[in-house]
Amino acid sequence: MSRPSRLLFDGDVLRYEIGAVCQSMEPMFDTMVVKPHSEARVREAVDAMVERVVHATDVESFEIFLSGSTNFRYDVAVTNPYKGQRLKSAKPYHWSTVGQILREDYGAHTVHGAEADDVLSIFGRQDPDNTVCASRDKDIRIVPCWHYAWKCGDKQPEIPVHRVTELGQIGFAQYPSGGYKLVGNGLKFFYAQILAGDDIDNYKGCPRIGPKAAADLLCNCNSEHELWEATYWAYHRKLGPEEGLRLLIENAQLAWLLDDAEVTHDANDIYISPKRLWQPPSPIPTGFSNGGLPWA
Q1: 283 is a domain residue
Q2: Per-residue pLDDT tens over the stretch 25-79
């Protein structure tokens, strides 16, 4: 199978990663204060990272995407504010500087109405054999195309260019301090996120189902129909048919990256209007499946 020639680069991650490392803590009187690095050093860091990713993916062309301030998910999230936790945390000092450099030096696109990941998803699905999505954001892993993730620190190794299938895979890993995280991609990872929730995006998932339980529940599913039924019955069991379905759909619409939207270009601005949000892939189950046994 030939390697992809087009790279779609998630610039949002760079704003946080490079913004965070391009500053230092220095003593001032009896306290420590943040001292940001110079803009020249920030530009060097941006150039080095872009060159590194382009070289690692061995592509012929690349585009960088940044999220703007508007996002349809803010209206979808009624149970908890979307990314409510992050809204309370301070961005790195050079967060805006990195974005400005990406726009001025690399022609980065600003995405309005959705997230940069949504554009990667839309474009990646249009030409999956020829597209590689570069990001460290776990959400993009549900998109069936080529993927690459660069190394970040000592605990997040590089993940070389690899292909994600539609169904994907799911598992879990344990943190050294305890607790678990989801590991996987494709539809299995998407449905596991719906079950386990996402602290960063601030949706809570199905009550009392964490990453390990979600992965165990879905790992042997062989189709999206089976993934959907397993997820539905888990919510049904915990919350009942009405509230369970309501919360499941809300969480799924927050987690799903768009695959169908009206895309309008205006210079380096991209405006996204979803044509449809996620909906169940098959009718609501009315009885137990798999030989009369419930999924959950």
Answers
A1: no
A2: 777 777 777 788 899 999 999 999 999 999 999 999 999 999 999 999 999 999 9
Residue 295 covered by a domain: no
Distance, CA of 237 to CA of 228 (rounded, Å): 14
Give residue for tokens 């605990």.
Answer: 155
Q: Kindly provide the residue ranges of all beta strands, DSSP E only, lying in the chain, ordered along the sequence.
A: 6-10, 23-28, 31-36, 61-71, 109-113, 131-134, 146-149, 159-163, 169-174, 180-185, 261-266, 269-274
Q: In 3D, which of 115, 122, 125, 138 has the Cα closest to residue 190? A: 138
Residue 111's domain comprises 6-274
Which are the contacts of 228, defined by CB distance < 8 A and separation ≥ 6? Answer: 191, 280, 281, 282
- What is the biggest distance separating any 2 CA atoms in the chain, rounded to whole angstroms? 71
Q: Is residue 82 part of a domain?
A: yes
Q: State how far the alpha carbon of 88 is from the alpha carbons of 2, 202, 289, 295, in Å.
A: 44, 12, 43, 38
The residue with tokens 């607790």 is 179
Give the 3-state secondary structure of residue 86.
helix
Q: How far is CA 243 from CA 248, 252, 255, in A?
A: 8, 14, 18
The residues pairing with 184 across neighbouring beta strands, listed in sequence order, are 170
Backbone angles phi, psi at 99, to 5 degrees: -60, -40
The yes-or-no verdict on residue 295 having pLDDT over 50 is no
Count of domains for the chain: 1
Distance CA 246, CA 90 (A): 32
Alpha-carbon torsion, ordered 72, 75, 79, 85, to 10 deg: 60
Residue 188 covered by a domain: yes
Give the residue from 10, 107, 15 showing the smallest Cα distance to 65.
10
